[in-house]
Amino acid sequence: MVVVYRNPRTGEFLLQHNCLHPDGGYSDYGPPAPISEKQLREEFSELVFDSLAMCGKRTFGEVEYHEPEGFETQHDAVYIVMLENGMLEISAGRKTRGGYEAPVVATVSEDEARTRMTELIDAAFKLAR
Question: Model pTM?
């Protein structure tokens, strides 16, 4: 899984890499990496697919990271997951008490995701508020 965070107040985007958690699910792998608007528009698909490819190779506990206090209230979130069938699921992280819920915005093929990634992320952020 990859999480894209956006601070709507500052316009800053962050790419959060993940690893598989031993109890199932995903866990943050290190701090989120800032990405520029230019990277988001021109290189974003490659950044996401590179991170997804590494997800199963990263080791839980190898790099510790805990979000700072107030992070969730300051950022919108979009989740991107590679499903077992090779499709990508893109979900909008809606803020809830104590975190996010993530209704699915789109499930697309890898080829479609590569050509429409920016459009799909924009649509998900519109629902993430």
Answer: 0.87
